[in-house]
# Entry
Amino acid sequence: MATKTSKGKRSVKKLVRKVKAAKKAPAFKPTKLKLLRPVPSNIEIAQAATVKPILQIAKELGIRENELELYGPYKAKIKLEILERLKDKPNGKYVVVTAITPTPLGEGKSTTTVGLSQALGAHLGRKSVAAIRQPSQGPIFGIKGGAAGGGYSQVIPMEDFNLHLTGDNHAITAAHNLVAAALDVRVMHEKQQDGEKMFNALCPMDKKGNRKFSPTMLRRVKKLGINKTNPNDLTPEERSRFARLDIDESTITWRRVLDTNDRFLREIQVGLGKDEAGYEHRSGYDITVASEIMAILALTTSVKDMRERFGKMVVATNKNGEAVTVEDLGVAGAVTVLMKDAIKPNLMQTLEGNPATVHAGPFANIAHGNSSILADKIALKLVGKDGFVCTEAGFGADIGMEKFFNIKCRYSGLIPHVVVMVTTVRALKMHGGGPKVVAGKPLPTEYTDENLELLRAGLPNLERHIENARKFGVNVVVAVNSFATDTKNEVELIRDAALKMGASDAVVSTHWADGGAGAKKLAEAVVKAAEMPSKFHFLYPLENNIKSKIEDIAVKLYRADGVDYTPEAEEQIARYTRLGFDQLPICMAKTHLSFTTDASKKGAPTGFRITVREIRASVGAGFLYPILGDMRTMPGLPTRPAFFDVDLDLKTGKVVGLF
# Structure
C-alpha cells in the first residue's frame, strides 16, 4: 500500500510534467489546400484561404504572446527581446533562394521561397520559416505586381502584405524626408546667420543664463574633439565650429523619397516659395526602397546598432572636404524614434499555415536586395538545428545573391548552407535568342511551344550562375519552376544540364499550381544538400582598395574584360579613400536583366567592359555603391499601370484586382 508521501511525490511529478507540456510549443498543424483547376488568380486564392490566428502561428513556432505586438488577428511584430531568450539555442539551416538572369516577368523566386518552406514544413515535417522582403507599393500599382508569391505558394493576407502591412515603408519615407528637410533648412539658416547667432539658436540660454546640449549635440561635440559638456564653456572658435556645418552644396547627395512610381519627381526644383527666395536648388525623388534608411533596416542587428548607423549616414561634405552626417544635422535621434517600431520583424503565414517573416525591402539593382538580418536571426533560432529558414535574394544571382554573400552575411555573421537557383524554360529560351519578353503582353509562341534548340542555346546563362554560386563555396540546388506549357523534354534537358554544370541536384517544381506538395522533391534535395560539406567564403577581403573590389565582382562574376571609370567616379574614389570609406563592401547598382550594363545583351556574354558612372556612399548602411550604366532610382509608370484593375468591392469590403 502506497504511503501518503509516495502519493504526494507522484502528484508533484505529474504536475511538473503537465507544466512542461504546457510550456512546450504546440505541434504544427498545416492548413490543407483545396487545389482548383484552372488555378484561380492570386487574390482569389488568398481570399478563399483558411487563415490561422497569428497567435497560433506564433505558438507553433515557439514565440511567446508577450514577445508579440499584434496588428489585428493575422499579423504581428516580433519584439527583439526574443533574441536574448533564444541566444543559446542552435541555429537552423540557412537557405538562400536566387535565380538566373530573369525576364521582365520575374522567374518566381518569392513563389519558390514560399513553396519550398511549405514543402519543408507541411510535407516533410521540418520546422521552417519563409523570410522574405516587404514589397514597394511603386511596382504594385505599376507593372510588376506584388511579392507575396503566387498561386498556391503565397504569404497571406496578401492584400496586407502588398500594401501598408504594419507601416514600415511609411516610417522610412517619413524618416528619410525629415533628414532632407533638416539638410535644406540648415543650409539656408547658415547663410542667414553667423556662427555666434547659430550657436545661440541651437543652444538658447534659459532665464538663469544656462545652456545645455541635447544628446545628439554631445555626439557632435565629441566628434569635433571638444571635451566639454557645458555649452557656456566653449570658446568663440569652438562655438563656431560646433554651430556651422559649412556644407558644400555641390556635394549634397541626399534626395527625397516616395513609395510611388512617379517619373516626374526624378528631377525637381525646390525652394520656390516666397519665403525661400534665393535658396532655390535642384533636387529629386527616389523610390522609398532605395533609401539608405531601408538598407540600414535590413542590415542592422539591434536598436543601438541602428542608432549608430543613422548617425553615420553621409549627406554631403563641407567646404574642407570632410563628411557631413545625419548626426551633424542633429536629426539622427529623431530618425531612430520614427524607426523604433519598424525595426521589429513582421510575422505572417503562408497558405499552408507555415510561419513567414516579412521585413525590409531594399531593391537588388539599386540597393542590396535582401530581407532583414534580424528577421533571419530570429527565425534561425526558432526553427532550431533541424529546421530551415528560406530567404530570398532579389533579382538574378549576379546581383541579389552576390550582395547576400558579400554584404548581408558579412554583417550578420551567418553562414549559408544551400543556394536554390530558380530557373524557367521561358527565361532560358530568352537567353537562347528568343523574342523580346514584354510585361503585360502575351508570350510569343517560341516560349509556349517546345523548342529544345532555343532552350539549349540559353543554358550558358544558368551555367554561369551556378559557377558563381560555387565560387562562394556553397552547394547549389537548381529549381526548375515549371509552367503548364513546359514539356517533359524541356524540363529534363534543363535538369540533365544543371547536374553536369555542378549543381548538387536539379528538381522540377510545381509549387505554383500544387503548393508545398509540388515542391516536396525540391525540399528533399535541399535537406540533402544542407548536410553535404561546404566551405563558405567571401569573394574579396574588405582590406582591398575600392577599385580592386569593384573589379573582383565585374571580372570574376560578370565576366567583364575590365572596368572603366568616369572622371567623376575617379574623384569620388579618391574622396572616399581619403575619408576612410574604402574599407566598406561594394554594392553594385546595375541592370538585373543582363550580366552587362546593357539590358539587351542576354545569355552569358563575354568581350565587354563595365563603366562606373559614379559612386555613392551609404556609410550608415555600410557599403559603397557604384552606379553602372543608366540606372534609375525612381521607376516610372507604363501606359497601362496595374492600378486600373485595383478597386474595393463596396458590398464585401474586399480588395479586387490585386494580381
